[in-house]
Amino acid sequence: MKVEQLFTGCLAEMAYYIHSNGEAAIIDPLRETEPYIEMAKADGAKIKYVFLTHFHADFVSGQVDLAKKTGATIVFGPNAEAEYDLHVGKDGEEFKIGDLTLQLLHTPGHTMESSSYLLIDKDGNTPYVFTGDCLFIGDVGRPDLAVKSDLTQADLAGHLFDSLRNKIMTLPDDIIVYPNHGAGSACGKNMSSETFDTLGNQKKTNYALRADMTKEEFIKEVTTGLKPPPQYFGNNVRMNKGINTNIDEVLHRGTTPIDADTFKEMSEQKDILVIDTRSKEIYAEEGTVPGAWYIGVDGSFAPWVGALVKDINQKIIFIAEGGREHEVVTRFSRVGYDNTLGYLRGGMHAWKAAGHEIDKIGSISAIQFANKLKEGSMEAPLDVRKESEYLSEHVVGVKNFPLDTIHQNFAEINPNKEYFLHCASGYRSLIAASIFQANGVKNVTDVRGGFNDIKDSGAELTEYVCPTTLL
Q1: In this structure, are 7 and 73 located in the same domain?
Q2: What's the pLDDT tens digit per position in 137-159?
Q3: What crossing angle do the helices spanning 301-308 and 325-334 adopt, rounded to 10°?
Q4: 20 to 30 A from 273, CA-CA: which of 71, 108, 294, 446?
Q5: Which backbone phi and psi does 327 adopt, to 5 degrees?
């Protein structure tokens, strides 16, 4: 028996590979298919099933392409409807993988088709349960993503309470809980950075599993403080119910090299967006193509693309570090941005050699930032962290302007002012600064090292104030 958790940090997502006696199954696969096919090939196994815990909102899953390539059966829980062939499982239904059995446990609440899968070994033991977005480590799935005209988030939360109490909490305390997400995902409010735990420990430490909690208390707890989900979530659910462009075609088109002159012509077209995906250090040092947004591939790339690029069909050309073009297109596609048209061949070196103009973001250190604040010589300092981060501690005299709502609030920005932006470490502030600059704000400066360095710079900070809502 082999059970592997496959963690993808950018999405804080966990897929699972299960192998026994020449047969394999994948639970909640990402869009790209080759890693799973190669794992099964290495084990001499045939992928028999692709199990989905629900229709995901935060990434596009790869069940259709994977089933086409392997002949595997796609399995969802009750209530699932899609445009492709699938097996709609029943509560308690069992599926054989070699000497193992996976039993479907219908656990609605996050969504109505949401299901968990209990692994039963050949001796009848139950070492693992794969809980999808029903139960996370330290949290539970948010109950507001499948709201319909006849189904409120309170209704969903009530279903989730029953699922946890009747299906999950009745399992042995020593069973290992394997969820679909960890800290950093927007599918819950306060997930742990741990990626698995025993159910017994979760009963002790997870607020949602408190033994004496009433259904009314649970509903209030899990529905309080929910922020609106990222705008791309609805698009990803729709894509996960449909048949999308084959991933191999997306990767082939997206990794088309484009020479500097052609790239310039394309970058000046109103319907094409340029995204610079290089490291923040290289981006800041070398500058970029005028009008380009910065979203570095080494950060939370896919979620920020999904949060900031409003049109899922947006035409995108990109700048990447040499050799990482395939990776970049893969990560665009994970959240459904399939309309990547190619990359700048030769990168910024080729751009400069062609004699084209360069945009560059200004930069100062945290100490310089603190000194300018004390001198009163800073016109418009902004903290682009989340509201909860800002409320917990921030620099006195600095306004909060969260990156995740930058488009909604951009009318507040005066293009004639000089802005100084910081986040926690310098990644989000560079994204924000690039969007400022692309939208006509010429005097924008990034604070290197962000709040992490500012705390040691001598700047005056607020005392800790507990946020009034949980994000």
Answers
A1: yes
A2: 999 999 988 888 788 999 999 99
A3: 60
A4: 446
A5: -60, -45
Q: Are residues 313 and 296 in the same domain?
A: yes
In DSSP terms, 421 is beta-bridged to: 382, 446
Q: Tell me: do 52 and 185 sit in the same domain.
A: yes
What CATH code is carried by the domain that includes residue 376?
Answer: 3.40.250.10
Residue 55 structure tokens = 């229709």
Asked whether residue 416 falls in the same domain as residue 385, the answer is yes
CA dihedral (332, 363, 383, 454) in degrees, to 10, reads 120
Is 413 found in the same domain as 319?
Answer: no
- Predicted confidence (pLDDT) per residue in 292-334, tens digit: 999 999 989 999 999 999 999 999 999 999 999 999 999 999 9
**Packing angle between helix 325-334 and helix 247-254, nearest 10 degrees?**
130
What are the CB-based long-range contacts (under 8 Å, 24+) for 271-274? 271/315, 272/315, 272/316, 272/317, 272/341, 273/309, 273/314, 273/315, 273/316, 273/317, 274/316, 274/317, 274/318, 274/319
Residue 24 pLDDT more than 60? yes
Three-class DSSP labels, 169-204: CCCCCCCEEEECECCCCCCCCCCCCCCCEEHHHHHH
What is the extent of the structural domain holding 332?
245-353
CA angle centred on 14, ends 231 and 68, rounded to 5°: 85
